[in-house]
Specification:
Layout (H helix, E strand, L loop, with lengths): L2 H9 L4 E8 L3 H7 L9 E9 L3 E9 L5 H5 L9 E6 L2 E7 L5 E3 L2 E2 L15 E6 L4 E4 L5 E3 L4 E2 L1
Antiparallel strand pairs: 1-3, 1-4, 2-3, 4-5, 6-8, 7-11, 8-9, 9-10
This protein binds zinc ion (ZN).
The site of zinc ion (ZN) has 8 residues, from loops.
Length: about 150
């Protein structure tokens, strides 16, 4: 395989999931959120790529993995404009936007050190209180946070 072909092999995806239009500043949060680090499939991560709409963007390509819809929708917490492309045999067979759920369980860590979720072995729970601004509120202590600033569990 010559160098050109190797580059193509990295760029193209036969089967898998492409997450596009991720704001550059949250790309690695998305990687963490999907637990991509622990996967042994072929993963391509690109960041600070030129985007006409966003200035720069990040993109993640994960070979041979299709995520449950609920998992992908978690991306909406930090990247509400992200787009999902499902690839089969080099063709995009499904294209859709991530969708923010009303409640997030076990996804985001509460920023309040006194919150029960930081002191008991339990899952966090946040309610989305502003969808335009993507602001979420801890179900247990009431602390609100803009989701882009939220710590992923
Ligand atoms: Zn809390």
């Amino acid at each position: 395989m010559n160098t050109d072909k190797k580059e193509l092999a990295v760029a193209a995806l036969r089967n898998g999931t492409v997450i596009d239009h991720i704001p550059s500043n949250v790309l690695f949060k998305v990687v963490k959120l999907l637990d991509i680090e622990g996967m042994d499939t072929h993963v391509t991560i690109g960041n600070n790529l030129p985007s006409r709409r966003m200035g720069t963007k990040g993109i993640v390509k994960i070979a041979d993995v299709t995520f449950p819809e609920a998992t992908l929708n978690r991306i909406a917490i930090i990247a509400p404009g992200a787009k999902i492309n499902i690839i089969r045999d080099f063709e995009v067979v499904e294209k859709r936007q991530v969708r923010l759920a009303d409640t997030l369980v076990g996804v985001v860590r509460c920023g309040n050190p006194k919150c029960i979720t930081n002191n008991e072995p339990m899952r966090t729970r946040f309610d989305v209180i502003d969808r335009d601004d993507v602001t979420i509120r801890c179900h247990y202590c009431g602390k609100t946070v803009k989701s882009v600033d939220a710590q992923i569990c």
